[in-house]
Amino acid sequence: MSVAPLPESFSSLIRGLALRAEDSEFLLATNAYLASVFGLSASDLATVVLRFLADLQRGLPAPGTLRPEDGVTPDHPGFLKMLPSHVTRLPDGSERGHCLALDLGGTNFRVVGTHLLGEGRAETVSERYTIPGYAKDGNAQDLFGFIAASIAGFLKLHPEYLPEPGQGPAPLAFTFSFPTQQDGLSSARLTNWTKGFSTQGVIGEDVGALLNTALEALDVPYRVTAIINDTVGTLISFAYSVGPDQGNLVSGVILGTGANAAYMERVELVGKLHDKVDLPTTAVTRADSMVLNIEWGTFGSMPLAPEEANRRAGLAERLLSFRQPATEPDADVPDEPPSTPMALPFTPYDDLLDMGSVHPGRQRFEKCIAGLYLGELALLTLRHLAARGVPGTSHPRVLFGQLTRDLPTSDDVQAFLDAAGRWSGETLARCEELFLRLAMALRGDDKVSRKTLEPAARDLLTELAALLGVRLPSSPENPLDDYLVELLVLGMTASYVSARAARLAAAGIAAIGLQTGLLGSEPLARVVSLARSETSRLLAPLTVAELGALKVAGQPLDPEMLLGTSPTETEIAAGPGGQGQPPEEVAFGLCDAGPPGDAAVEVPAAERLLFGIDGSVFEFYPHFPGRMHRALTDLFGPRVGGRFSLQHAKDGSSVGAALAAN
Ligand code: BGC
């Protein structure tokens, strides 16, 4: 039997399923709520892109020349650090050699033996080590001692990587995926920890020197010669594997446990490099370009006045019913916009996640898009739906039926958040995967048998119920019948959270694309007019002065061109997808993202902007790349959107580090 492809929006999907009327209504109400909370219209997205571009340009001058009245300054949590990597040229694929590389900053620590074979090819042998808790929150010796011991373990398993006797220590390439200030390739001072790390005694220190001391102490015959960020490594290894002829090599991006991007910038625009004439590597100041590590995770972070912070925290806690019995009027998210418009569309779930995180108030962009956080965001949303029903409706149905009466109402928000943090992004991807297969089965697609979905459904329901504090009677016998609605809500929530992440990541990529100058100024004018076409409820629009300060390739823009145009109604409405659905929903490409934006357009290599992207979120989340392409098409239209080529750069950071040390 042939079955039509899944529709693009959940509302069409739900309407097309043979569900009980009550369930169908409940799912439609839930969908409308999720779209209103996590939806990002093309206009919202355009506002994010412009703010990102403005912040990116503010990160280029020497810090001393920044004035508070011009916007964020380096001590602001939202400041984009734009860190010089001291990598001034990219490989062309011909490089050869051997190297040992380390990768610290993802979920595991890895030691990677790399053999560069030329012709863009590399062979690697790697070992993974689980990073113990004490290394993440202990002291520098704990962390670097663990790293040195792991390398010693690797060398036992792979003695061919031991240097020849009498040769002295061999060079070691270190991918250290945290923000660092570098004066050269071989030393890097940590500016601050991110993700789940808070090891004492490392901030402000040279991580190369700390590692060398630990290596010496354990007699490990290696010394650090190159330290790079994973995004920089990804760009380098991507350049190595694709070679120079496929298009313009623009950027390396990580969408994994953390999220960030690095790109090639012209040194003449990087004011903070100009006063560094005394750098040991004077080649840097003579070079045309340098890879900059944006540290984009900080984007949108902002200090809040204490009253506003309290208000947001209170709202967030009420949403989870920790502070108020479920019978009191609902704290309805859409009806309570923030009193301070933000650079990012933070929901109360984002605020709550932030409050419970290792670095509150920081890395707010990263907390919307990285794998470390996506599972928790979805779980907080589900907890709200389970505790209070669908906001804005008085629908009698609740998730897990009467069982939600038992939800804990303890004051211990932090304990719940800690538990929620264990719901990994990988689980979320499983939810969405199951959802898509379930939808296919419900639509009568005989390629998917309901029976085969049962074990995954049972596992996810049991995990979810345990985390929400709902006592399921036992492991459900017939999960697809008894908890169909729960499974669909689970999948929808996962989709909305990850689709928003994909769109926000694409906004960062769009800003980098604009900054290269390769697109010219028209696409920027289009984004400005999209941003001005609608006043967003949540986001702070750019002021005319801020818009006027934007540059393309270092050149100011003609204000007439920027501000004189207004998009036509049809331009704004023209998004992919069908008629009659809420715009947020259409733009999301929720169920089936369809072909990427550039599939229909043949783009000559000279016009292509190549982005090498690595990380579990990009690689494993269903539809993530497709949704990013969709966002780029929403922003720029299919012709310019199609110039962005988002490619998976496999194992970028370790091969990139080896190339940097080569
Ligand atoms: C770090 C970046 C890193 C990214 C991806 C972020 O938390 O600050 O330096 O590139 O994670 O690993």
Detailed description of the structure:
- One of its GO terms (biological process) is glycolytic process.
- This is hexokinase.
- One of its GO terms (molecular function) is D-glucose binding.
- Its EC number is 2.7.1.1.
- The chain has 662 residues and is of the alpha/beta class.
- The chain has a domain at 84-258 and 652-661: Nucleotidyltransferase, domain 5.
- The protein has 26 helices and 15 strands.
- A hairpin with a 3-residue loop joins strand 2 (96-104) and strand 3 (108-118).
- Helix 15 packs across helix 16 (450-468).
- The protein is globular, with a radius of gyration of 25 Å.
- The chain starts with 9 loop residues before the first helix and ends with a helix.
- The structure holds beta-D-glucopyranose (BGC).
Relevant terms:
single chain, 662 residues, alpha/beta, Nucleotidyltransferase, domain 5, six-stranded mixed beta sheet, five-stranded mixed beta sheet, 15 strands, 44% helix, binds beta-D-glucopyranose, glycolysis, transferase, D-glucose binding
